[in-house]
């Protein structure tokens, strides 16, 4: 099974876009080249603010669908929890 990622990018206008990919770095570059999702094309640049590695494409798509049901506030909490977790890992 190959790895896949669900991710959230913050657009230049402050909005959040959720997607999934098998190559996170390349996908963010595609978004910033204006060749990604229609939604992000007019909101460049985008910045990766959250991601989660999953076991495969199906799991990543399922997670994406669940995140898209969250409110903006809930997505911001998800992002904040990830950021705090990364800061704690760096402190160790």
From TrEMBL:
It comes from the Bacteria. Residues 2-77 form the GIY-YIG domain. InterPro entries: GIY-YIG_endonuc, GIY-YIG_endonuc_sf, UPF0213_domain. One of its GO terms (molecular function) is endonuclease activity. It comes from Anaerospora hongkongensis. PANTHER family: UPF0213 PROTEIN YHBQ. Belongs to the UPF0213 family. This is Putative endonuclease. SUPFAM superfamilies: GIY-YIG endonuclease. Keywords: Endonuclease, Hydrolase, Nuclease.
């Amino acid at each position: 099974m190959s790895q896949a990622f669900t991710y959230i990018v913050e657009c230049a206008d402050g909005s959040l876009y959720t997607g999934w990919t098998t190559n996170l770095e390349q996908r963010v570059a595609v978004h910033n080249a204006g060749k990604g999702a229609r939604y992000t094309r007019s909101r460049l640049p985008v910045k990766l603010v959250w991601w989660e590695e999953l076991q495969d494409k199906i799991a990543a798509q399922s997670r994406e669908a669940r995140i898209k049901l969250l409110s903006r506030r809930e997505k911001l909490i998800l992002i904040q929890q990830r950021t705090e977790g990364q800061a704690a890992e760096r402190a160790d």
